Amino acid sequence: MSQLSAEDEVELQSLLKQLLQSINDKIAGAPSTECAEEILLHLEETDKNFHNYEFVKYLRQYVENSLGTVVEEETKSLCRGDGQHAIGSGHDTLIHAVTRRTRDSAEYQQMMQTLKNTMIMVVESLINKIEEDQLRKEEMHREKQHSQSNSQCTDNCSDSDSSFNQSYAFIRQEQLQVLAEKLESSKPKEVRWEALQALCCAPPSDVLSCESWSSLRRNLCAALTEPDPDLSFFAKSFSSSPLNVTREIYTSLATSVDSSFLSQKLSFPSGSAVLDINRPEISRLLKQIRLMNDFQKEVTNFWIRHPEKYMEEVIESTFFLLSFHHEHGSAGTEKALEPIHLLALLDVKATWFKKWMHGYYSRTVVLRLLERKYKSLVSDSLNNQYLSLTSLLSANVLGSVQRSVYSGKELEYSFFVHSLCVLGKLIIYTNGRKLFPIKMRKHKDPVSLTDLVVILIKIMYRHPQPLHSDTSHTDSLSPSSLVMEVLWMLCERTECAAECLYQTPVIEMLLAPVISQLKSPAATLTLIADVLARIANTDRGLALFLYEKNLVLAHSERTFAAHVIVQFTLRLLDKGLPSLSESDVSHTLCGAFIFVCRQIYNTCEGLQVLRPYGLHKAVAAAWKQTSSLSERVPTPVPGASAGTSTQELQHIHIWEETLLDSLLNFAATPKGLLLLQQTGAINECVSYMFSRFTKKLQVSRCEKFGYGVMVTQVAATAPGVVALHSSGFVRALVVELWSILECGSEDVRVVRPKPTPMDPIDRSCLKSFLSLVNLLSSSQSVWELLGRQPLANKSEYTLREMPSSIPDLIDRLIAVNSDVKIHSLFHYEQSHTFGLRLLSVLCCNLDSFLLMESQYNICSMLLQSQRENITDLDTSEGEFIIDSLSVERNHVLVRVSVVGGPSERRLPSRALQEGEHPYPWPMFSCYPLPRCYSLDPPEIQHNSEISTFLASSKDSNNDESWMENCRRQYCKVVASKPNILTGKGKLLGAFYPPNPLLYTLSGISEEKSVKSAVLSSMEQLGINTCLRYGSYLKLLKDDAVNDLTLLLKHMKIFLSTQRAKTSSELSILHRQDGYLGHDWLASTVFLITAGNMDQSLRLLLNLSSLLISAFIWPARIHACVSTKSGIPPVYWCTAHYVEMLLKAEVPLVHSAFRMSGFTPSQMCLHWQTQCFWNYLDWTEICHYICTCVVMGPDYQVYMCVAIFKHLQPDILQRTQSQELQVFLKEEPIQGFKVSNYLEFMMGLERSYRNIVLADMRSIRKPVE
């Protein structure tokens, strides 16, 4: 088949038309003819339906009919003997050879020529039909236009009729030249309209690249000046063309608008005059500016894909238009209408500018042009803000209802809103702020950033609007809400806030209504409180409030912002401002200012400043009063109007929750928790926190983290953990853990089997595990939750039985000592491993371990389990079965049986190794332990410098100068010879005069009285632990047990005389046995004196009269007057200042703790309660005791800060892997030497001693 008949041509024409219709979307989107050709050439690669088109099928059949015979003959020829080499060399080679010969054949040439001629005729015929159809449509459209009423006004600027859904007819250069001539202003209107319609059907790229574009552009701009211009060409160009095309169209449109304003010289309406947007000249300009504004908002989506010069042309043409009046304004007194006024009316919140400033690519160009050429635009916006102060602005001048008439005030207000949004977006960027200060007309001094913010605050004061909720103000156009949006944006950015807000004039302006205490609207004061809270929530803003005297009071006296705020808040709570006494208004305003104070007192340094004002007492009193009011609300009576009663009850309930929430936030710091406990509202506050915690609600709008840190802080103390337990928090935590660990998510459809956990603590259980660690970190918490609580040890456990308390959890997961308990677990190995890991962390606290060992015989239970894990139980030669449980048990047994610091004991690894011996650590099932777990004891070097100094100055040790010399000598020895221990006992004994109580000891230490004293089982276990450590250090003799027991009995009798009476129901205070834990300080002193009971007793009695004993000796201060609350001073004082100093000196560590939900105060309490046993080597423990006694009690704080500084790299790393709590609990403090950080601690003393030591001394007058 080499010839095509007429029928074939008709069929081809139909098939080609069908193909073009199928790919219309691809061709219509092509910016040029060349691109359209490229699309057609690569259609087979890009269109998956290519081979399904009828036109393609027709061509394939035609080629097969024309060349099928030729292909067969060539294939046979090549497959004969002379072509064997082709077959042998591969199938692909044969195909290439057949293809080459076929293309060289005469049949192929004839087919191509015939197909080419036929397709040319088909395409020409198709083009003619398209042109005829187009002319017919134009004629019909023209007739339709003539039939319509001339008075009808249509909006042709909308780009909703996008040209993406229309086909382009490719146009020749000659036709474009004719269209350019038809568009001349001298032609009739109908001719110009037809030419414009024809131009809309051509690709914009062809129009811009034609030779007559300059005349076309001139004529198009001239057409825009007509009363009812047709903007369809501009709209379709914007919607379907690339930036290199649309920037030409846009600049043309901007030039036309500029020329229109220049020629028409429109006046701004003044007085009673209005702007009617239906006036032809105004309507025309509005349509053009609206089209430009639509393009401005859309162009940001794609201009990054084009050269920067295109974007710069668009931005510069916009700025040139908006700065119109500077170039062309008249010198008359009449105010002119400018393009910026109409743009503000169309886009009142400057969405176009916000989008341009959002991306760095465009923001750079915008700011560069503003700085170099168009700074007058910023000056104009600033001038508008100044004018707004002198004119009355209506908050609702711009409604959502469409109107056609606007007054001058409405235009001014829209321009004010537009300018404010532009300035607000400008100053949040560094280069935008560099534009300031800016010179303004009619102002002698340039306007700085601070001046701008002060102006905005004044505007907010002049036009207050009550804040109902954040969301309701998002789209509001009231001045106050617009200013607040700007201030919020500044508060959220550190650099912006520092340059714009943290300035004395700004703070003075914010607090002016508070200082003057004149009759200010509650709405204004509420807005002030909102801004102040956001400022106080940042470190820099908080420091500004606390430490800078930037406010002027009466008689030119200067004061701190924090003092002004808390004083005003107290007056609000006391209802000392009659003008604000209305109940609902007063509660809302008071709650707002309490929230500001809350941002201050939930930090350690802020609480330090606010504590003297007794804010916690005032809030607690208000809460008690409100709580009693809510109980007295009358019960609704049937038939009576319940509206007022219900509304009143609702307001009271909201106010009560606000006060509870404010009280609860005192628990964010250790000292704040003490203040909360003293108010008597801790149980109610914790119950409120638990209700929000279960709903997963945010702490507040300013908090970045949830309640994790607060729960941890509360759980560190006995009253706090009791409140958590009574609120249901502990039960909820245990049930949630059990559900995750044992039950799983049964309601979720199982698509694939759940993978076997590879980690000892599965990721799904990690959060619950860390929550338990935080809850049980303190030995006081463990005593309250476990003290005198036996394990169930049931004979039968049902599978549906869930634990609901900590003893139940220990019974089911840790003390798995029977087959019944094993069979009651769905995931025995995983769950028991979880329990053993938890036990390992709990046993790091020596008092917690002693309690569990005395009550539950943990060690015997673990040893028995190890014995049952031997291959041959009948003989003693069996080997231990190494599995995850036996490895965990071995680790726990070594941890609790061997005492020592990082250089004194070796803990077995939990990980297996490769090779023949995967677990090289020896296991055991009875005592004594293998020797490999204890390292060689340190050599105690002897030096007589301290002893010589003490002997030479024996008679002058009461002199203040002698004390200073002693401190200097001590620092010298520690720094030069850190391993020296000789003389430490003499130093402790000689540094302070003997206690007079020592001479009354005869009444206490009678042998009969001492023998009658009974030590608890915990104390007996503690004695054994101390003896093991002393024997390892070679400090004690074999009979030291009697001396240590006698010493502890002496101390027990002596301290019982110091105990104050209390009515507390806390376990740690209610027991008659005194201090529940072991006296680790007495044991440490006993080891320092090498087992000398008499010397130890004298040292301890002398120490009991010193201030330092309240902090390093928990048994001494237990249950005395200053700890009636159940919170020890080492927590509310030492740990409080550790957290405060960490934030200032080691901020990364402080942030890491915040992120982890753990607190430094918990670790401080843990370390110091047991005198750093198991965390520091013996030498450093001695240095810790002596440093605190010799250098001062505040060195206890500096010591902890130094340790955290030393651990900073590890803390940061473990925080990322969510292991911080476990790391700090289980790992000793590697490499820490007091001598290395003595200089650092002395620096802290110079900076903070006045604050820290003064507060430590206040223990004699407890915090209230």
From TrEMBL:
SUPFAM superfamilies xref list: Ypt/Rab-GAP domain of gyp1p
Annotated protein name in UniProt: Protein broad-minded
Localization in the cell: Cell projection, Cilium; Cytoplasm
Keywords linked to the UniProt accession: Cell projection, Cilium, Cytoplasm, Developmental protein
Entries under Pfam families matching the protein: BROMI, BROMI_C, BROMI_N
Gene3D superfamilies: Ypt/Rab-GAP domain of gyp1p, domain 3
GO CC aspect terms: cilium; cytoplasm
Keyword ATP-binding recorded: no
Role this protein plays: Required for high-level Shh responses in the developing neural tube. Together with CDK20, controls the structure of the primary cilium by coordinating assembly of the ciliary membrane and axoneme, allowing GLI2 to be properly activated in response to Shh signaling.
Organism: Amphiprion ocellaris
Residue segments, region Disordered: 136-158
Domain BROMI middle region intervals: 174-824
Composition-biased stretches (Basic and acidic residues): 136-146
GO biological process, one term: non-motile cilium assembly
UniProt entry tagged with the keyword Cytoplasm: yes
Domain BROMI N-terminal: 12-139
The BROMI C-terminal Rab TBC-like domain, residue ranges: 842-1259
Listed Polar residues bias regions: 147-158
